[in-house]
Amino acid sequence: VRFQSCDGNKKIHFGSSEPEDFRVGEDGVVYAERSFQLSAEPTEFVVSAQDKETQEEWQMRVKLTPEPAFAEASEKNQKKIEDIIFPWQHYKHSSPLKRQKRDWVIPPINLPENSRGPFPQELVRIRSDRDKSLSLRYSVTGPGADQPPTGIFIINPISGQLSVTKPLDREQIASFHLRAHAVDVNGNQVENPIDIVINVIDMNDNRPEFLHQVWNGTVPEGSKPGTYVMTVTAIDADDPNAQNGMLRYRILSQAPSSPSPNMFTINNETGDIITVAAGLDREKVQQYTLIIQATDMEGNPTYGLSNTATAVITVTDVNDNPPEFTAMTFYGEVPENRVDVIVANLTVTDKDQPHTPAWNAMYRMTGGDPTGRFTILTDPNSNDGLVTVVKPIDFETNRMFVLTVAAENQVPLAKGIQHPPQSTATVSITVIDVNESPYFVPNPKLVRQEEGLLAGSVLTTFTAQDPDRYMQQTSLRYSKLSDPANWLKIDPVSGQITTTAVLDRESIYVQNNMYNATFLASDNGIPPMSGTGTLQIHLLDINDNAPQVNPKEATTCETLQPNAINITAVDPDIDPNAGPFAFELPDMPASIKRNWTIVRISGDHAQLSLRIRFLEAGIYDVPIVITDSGNPHASSTSVLKVKVCQCDINGDCTDVDRIVGAGLGTGAIIAILLCIIILLILVLMFVVWMKRRDKERQAKQLLIDPEDDVRDNILKYDEEGGGEEDQ
């Protein structure tokens, strides 16, 4: 059935008065909805056409009659086949010029897909009005005829009957464009070709197909109704502009069905899934599974084809549950003076998804720790709070701590949550008393003492204190730990320190006038503990060392000029018991002052020179009296060994051998003796080696007959001769 509006723009919906028996598609094709036998009388029903916008309706009556038998039908159909006639040509007013009439617009031929035949099925007959005077031949060209796919359409060249040879599939080719030709027996064109369009009418032969069989989406818990979740999409290979390809979506089932069996709805045209009810709670239902159905024929459950897919909607977590302590009070204990020790585990529960910012707990102390001796770390696996000591605690000062702690999530609670954002609890921590080490007061202890203190003198008392006031312990015991010069001893009970030797500031164990000794104080606790203390003795200098001459040996010329010797006074004491020094020569023997003179050139230096014009070369011992500036003064007589020698014009000695013969120093004598001993050892080793070699040679000679020893019998002569004599 066809409906044509005046303006051609109306959107019409066809309906049937007998929907159980007959259905009218959007394209006007009438279908039988069931199998039934038609009576001999015509069957009548009404087809309505309704404007979708104005709801205006028109009606038309349809009469159906049974088809005749096959033979009769063939004859009848043969008579009813539509003729397509080529446009004709004519002469105007006997004018010799021919003018062709304007081409006709051939309406398209509509052919349903999936036809059951019989084939070939006649469609139209193509003829020319000139076939009465000429013998014509008809043909068709184009895709489906002589071009791929070939052989779908054929034409009888004599009668012009156009037929289809097999069922068509609109999903493969929706329309065919052919050209019909008419020629005479000689192949000459007698008519212009005409275009024939064959439209394949869509049938609902394809089910909708979802792009994915399983669709995954997410929605935050607590979402309000109308929140977009996801979109599912299905496609239908049928004509999308006809009902066969128009899809509608609906939700068949929801699992689980709590808190409501209709938590979601779907837009039946777009496939958008949105929430329709409140109450999404991830802690109760973490995932919903929806069965989605797509039906063509605009969702008609009777005529439409359907298919299903699964939509899995995961409810994502939001921070709608704060952490809650499992107890109001937690307990722990810690030994005093221990750090980096976990003293208590704070446990919380949080219904949000584990290991997310909405579940991870952060702990902080709100009271009870003004000095910052504790901190709370979070165990990333268990979410527990680990109360840890970061500063030493003294039992004698604090025996117990009561901390107030709070726990909250890393992210704030979601809006509209009625719970408090944090949970609080108390932590009671008991400090355990342990045996602590004694400590000396003060440490180090400084004592100022003049050197020269005799052995057995009391120096000071160095005692320690035990911090364990609440433990039953005996008194401390003292012992010496370090005393480099072994000058001191300590009483094990009282801690009194006395000297065992004379204190000497000039000792090698004294650095910068300071002598250090270390002592040990021990208790009898369990376990026993001990502490060390350092005694620093600042030794004050006394004038207990006389100055000495330096160097001990010198060289000068036997003449008066040049003959000056520079000497220096050395005193281990320090100011004011050292320089400036006084230098002088003794009165005895008289030759000293007669031959030598000494002059001080500075506080520590003097110059010795000959008083006489000439002194015979040799080695002379010159005593020099040196006195320091201490109170009282300290003086000593130092002997300077002076080598007098003959000198050249530069003042260098020229008779070193004679001086050495006259007397050698101790170092030179030792060196000479060492050289002699080494030389004797080398000679002895050489003699032993030679004897050993002779013994080896004699042993070899015993193994060889002297007459067979050719080494002494073969001679070489560099001469030529008679040969006989040369033997």
TrEMBL record:
Annotated PROSITE patterns: CADHERIN_1, CADHERIN_2
GO MF term set: beta-catenin binding; cadherin binding; calcium ion binding
GO CC term, one of those recorded: presynaptic active zone membrane
Transmembrane residue ranges: 668-690
Membrane topology: Single-pass type I membrane protein
Protein name: CADH2 protein
GO terms, biological process: adherens junction organization; calcium-dependent cell-cell adhesion via plasma membrane cell adhesion molecules; cell migration; cell morphogenesis; cell-cell adhesion mediated by cadherin; cell-cell junction assembly; homophilic cell adhesion via plasma membrane adhesion molecules; synapse assembly
Alphabetical keyword list: Calcium, Cell adhesion, Cell junction, Cell membrane, Glycoprotein, Membrane, Metal-binding, Repeat, Signal, Transmembrane, Transmembrane helix
